[in-house]
Structure formats: C-alpha cells, structure tokens
Amino acid sequence: MLLAGGDPRRKLDVLMQALDRLDIAVFLTYLVLTLIIGAIVGRRMHTGLDFFLAGRRLPWWAIGFSLVATDIGGTDIMGVGGATYNHGIAAGNFDWIGCVPVMIIAAFVFVPKFYRMKIYTIPEFMERRYNAAVRVALTLCWLLFMACNMGIMLYASGKLLEPLLGLSQSQCIWLTAILVGLYTFTGGLAAVVYTDVLQCVVMIAGCLAVLVMGVIEVGGVGELHRQVKEVRQKKIEHEQQKRVEAGDAPLPSAEVEHLDLVLPVNTRTPFPWTGIFFGLTLILSPAYWIGNQAIIQRSLGAQSEFDAKAAYVWGALLKNLIPLIIAVPGLIAVVKFPDLQDGDQAIPRLVAEIFPSGFRGLFVAAFMAALMSSVDSYLNSATTLFSHDLYKRFLRPDATDRGLLAVGRATTVVLTAWGIVFALNAGRFDNSGVYAIFQTLMAFFQGPALAILLAGMFWRRATGAGAVVGFIVGVAVSVSLYALNQPAVYSALGWEPLFQIQDPYLYFSVWAFLTTMSLLVIVSLLTKPTSLEKLADIFDKSS
Amino acid sequence: MTPLHQFGLWLRETLMQIPLPVVRGLFVAAIVAVIAWVWSLPRTQTEPVDHPPRWDENLKWIATAALGAQIVIYCVF
C-alpha cells in the first residue's frame, strides 16, 4: 500500500478497552494457527532455492493472497479508514487505480520476463542489464527501507499487544519478533506466503464484518450515502463560517468531496486527480508492483510461468474488494462519529461500538495479520537481498546453495534482532518527524528506480553510467523537494512552499522520475553502448 | 517567488482548466485501453502452454473482470 498512513501508536486504545475473554481467545487462536502453518511448511527446507524462492513450487492462488496481504500493512487498515474519514473515498484510489491496471500489465509484461531469467532479486536484474554499481545502489536503498519499516511495524505491534496481553510493550515487541522470525527462519518464503494466505483471509473476514455490520447499523447503502453528504455539508458550512468570522480566506472548494474518487486540483484533500493519475498511477504504483523486491519475489517462486502471471491477475481481482472493506468503514464512521478529532480513531471506535464479543477479537487478529504479513515479507526479502546481492555477489561468489541457506537463516536472525532493537528505541522518534520520514522513504527512490528499470527493459541504448547518474541525481531531487517543502527549510529561505498540498510525495516522485529518465538518456547517449552479448540476456525474445 | 514556483503555478492553473468529467473519462479510458491490450495478447501468453487450458485458466477473462470492476467503480464514484 502506497498511502502513507498515520502514526499507529494510539489508534487501537479505544478498541482494546472493549475486548473480553472470547475476543482474546479468537486472537490467540489466530496466532497459534500461524505458527502451525509456519512449522508445517518449514519441514521442506533443504536448499537456498527452497528458502529464498520456496523451491519454485508456489501455486498462483497462494501468491495472489500473499501479494494482497503484503501490500496491506497493519497501519493501512487504520490509515486508509482514517484517511477516508478525513478526506473521503478518494483514499480508495491507492488500491483501485493505484493497483489494478498496473498489476495486469505487470502480469503479462514484466513478471514473465523476470521469471524466465531465473533471477532471485530485482537488483540482480539490474546488474545483468547495467552494472554492479546499480545493483549495489538499489540493494542498499531497499535494505535500508525494509530494515526501518520492519522496526516500525514491530513497534506498532508492541503498542497493539501491550493492553491486550497485559505484558509490557518491550515484551510484546520481543514476542511478535520471535514469532515472525521463527516461522520465517524455519520456512523461508514458503512459510511467509502460506501464513500470508491465512493472514489475508483473516484480514478480509475481519474488515468485511466491519463493513456489513456498519452498513446495517446506519440503515443501508442509500442511507449511508445520504447521511455522509448531509454530515459533511454541515461541517463545511461550519468551517466556512468560522473562517469568515476569523477573517481568513474561504475554503478553495466548498463541495462535499467525501463520495468522489476523482477530485479537482484545488481539493482540500491530499488526493487531487493530478497526484493520483501522474504520481500514483503512472509512477509509484508501477514502481511498487514491478520493482519492489518484497512483492516480485513471490512471483519468482511460482511453480510455473503461468502461475506467476495468474497470481498477479488473481491479486488484481482481489484488490477490487480491499477499499470497500477498509475505506468504506471510514465513511460509516463519518455518520456514526462526526466530531472525532483524530480520524485514525474512526475504525477502532466503530469496531468497539458495533461488534459483539468474539468479532472484536477477529478484527484485532485482522490488524495483527496485516502487520505480521508485512514484517515477514520485509524480513524474508531483506534476507534475500543481503544473501544474493551482497554476500554471494561480493564476499563468497563460490557459495553453495546449502551454504546460502545457512547464510539466509543467519541473516534472518540478525535482521530480527535489528528489528527488535529498532522497535525498542522507536519511541524516541514519536514526536520528532523521523517517523514520517521513514514512511516517505520509499517515495524517495521509487521514481528513479522505475525510470532505470523501464529504460533497461525497453531501450537497448541505456547504459550503466546513465543509470547510475540518473538514479543518484533522481534520489537527490526527491530528497531536495521533500526538504524544500518542510516549513523550517522554506521559511529559512524566505520562500513559499513548493507544493500546495499537505503531503506532496505523489508529486515529487513524478519530478524525480522525469529527472532520472532525462539524465539517463543524455548520459547514455554520451557513453559507450552496452555490448550486444550482455543485452542478449534481456532482449532475447525467449527470455 | 522563484522560477520553480512560477512554473508550478502555471502548471497548476493549466491543469485546473480541464473539466472533471473529462478527467474521469481519462481514468476510464486508461482502464479500457488496458482491457483492449489484454485481448490483443496471443493465447500463449494468457493460457498455460503445457496442457490444454480449462475454462478458468484463460487469464483474459479474469483480467477483464478485474478491470471491468474498475470501470464500474470509476463510473459510480
């Protein structure tokens, strides 16, 4: 999920107070089932290929579920519901046009190409197309992002479990990390994918229950539509009145935007159509579904090329459902609790209020499932990146497949330990803005990474030098645009903010992509073309 | 006001001239274009090649269902 969610720390407090023994029993059952699946799958681990790519034995349906589960993090369930409460159904764009079309294109163009090349990682593809420098740059970016996000997810799970289990936050972080680390250590990608299936089913069941019971509670779909419009109209009129009294400029748009997916450029929300179309649909979404190691690794472990493609198509079909079950409850909360100060409290309040005993536990399990499915994926993919793109490539090129299995497991232990240390210290970042930067990290290098990937696949004249220069400058442009939009920076320069929306990462990814692509073209044309032998691997019709 | 700001404002003003129904049409047209492209693909790319495909193994239909749902969604909301 590409939508930057809010801080997950305090979101579930209200829900936790409403849990009883049956809820906790449902939740614990889910955790035990996860461990059992991980243990069963882990018995088939004999080689590095088994560990990193599940022995290329994964069926399409399991990969499809896993793609969706990995994409939806725990923070997204609260974040999208909260964003919908605050800004409307436009938050659903991230799972609709921000996923479905590009997943279909990826299924028939990119996934088969990667599958036939028998690569383990996207950086490996980059070296085969360009050079080792591009591979290292991309590996380091992904490792940094995955390691930090893993820590943040563990921190969120500690906050969630603390009131539920009656343990301290530190103990809960240890517990989650050991649980996820254990089945990832024993079962590698296969355990990650099959536990993701359970996690996806639990997540969909929990969120679907919220949707159905919520719609019944407000009197049906038609009534929901009418009441959302009415509540929001009153809020906007009240806000306009307050601005007039304070002598401020009126709102740029006084229309009710909560029920529209396509919003004008001057919308009050962070989701103008320009950002959704140019930033999300054309840049961030392809970068995520084609170039994200944690996503693409599943399809590389498919039992056949057809399964790899079918998984993406099945995932796209499932994706249509996701905003309905995680965004629409945000609209229900608009009707039920029109005056919440923090939109992220919308879903927990709704669940606490409308769910009977047992169902609340199902929702908490759904939230935990979403968290765990992201942590295990980052853990396994970061392990694969380190083992293949750094260890085997630079330290031990002669490493055997069994040796790589040992390295993969050792790396899993080290990364789990890192995640625990990070999560235990994450509380220090709470109010410093560092948390928001971690959430934006991916947007810094996604645009440039997509540019070099596309040029590498479709333009023979693209060279390694062009890719390196384009990537580095593109990331620098992303970071600069982000910095120039921070109040402390633009105030010090005596400037106005560069972008007129609150969180413009959709926009700066476009500029970073364009910068990278332009530089890549210029430098490539000025440098020696790549040899035809090297390109045969990429442009040969059979590969 | 830097040249960057001036360029940004010009771009913003230009894009604001495009009516929202046209934008919605652009979203739907993009999805329709992907459906048309999927149907133009050879069968070897959308069906298994190692055995005769069952009725549910034609990915063109599943892809069309996924994208068709998108068209409905973007026409309704």
Tell me what you see in this structure.
- The complex is a heterodimer of chains A (543) and B (77).
- Chain A has 24 helices and no strands.
- With 543 residues, chain A is mainly alpha-helical.
- Helix content of chain A is 74%, strand content 0%.
- In chain A, 58% of the residues are buried.
- Chain A has helices at residues 13-16, 21-42, 48-53, 60-71, 74-87, 100-108, 110-117, 122-129, 132-165, 169-218, 221-246, 273-291, 293-300, 305-319, 322-326, 328-336, 346-354, 359-395, 401-425, 434-458, 464-484, 487-493, 505-526, 532-539.
- Chain B has 77 residues and is mostly helical.
- Helices cover 74% and strands 0% of the residues of chain B.
- Chain B contains four helices and no strands.
- Chain B has helices at 3-16, 20-40, 43-46, 59-76.
- In chain B, helix 2 (20-40) runs antiparallel to helix 4 (59-76).
- Chain B is elongated and about 65 Å long.
Number of strands of chain B: 0
Shape of chain A: globular
Using the alpha-carbon principal axes, give the shape of chain B. elongated
**N-to-C span of chain A:** 30 Å
Helix/strand/pairing category of chain A: mainly alpha
Measured by residues with Cβ under 8 Å of the partner chain's Cβ, the largest interface is:
A-B, 38 and 37 residues
Instruction: Enumerate the spans of chain B where pLDDT stays under 50 for 5 or more consecutive residues.
Output: none
User: How many distinct beta strands of chain A?
Assistant: 0
**Which structural class do you get from the secondary structure elements of chain B?**
mainly alpha
Note the quaternary state here. Answer: heterodimer
How much strand content do the residues of chain A show? Answer: under 5%
Number of helices of chain A: 24
Average pLDDT figure of chain B: 92
The N- and C-terminal alpha carbons of chain B lie at a distance of: 38 Å
Low-confidence stretches of chain A: 4-9
**Percentage beta strand of chain B:** under 5%
SSE order of chain B, one letter for each helix or strand = HHHH
| Average residue-wise pLDDT of chain A | 86
Describe the largest sheet of chain A.
none
Helix content of chain B: over 70%
Largest sheet of chain B: none
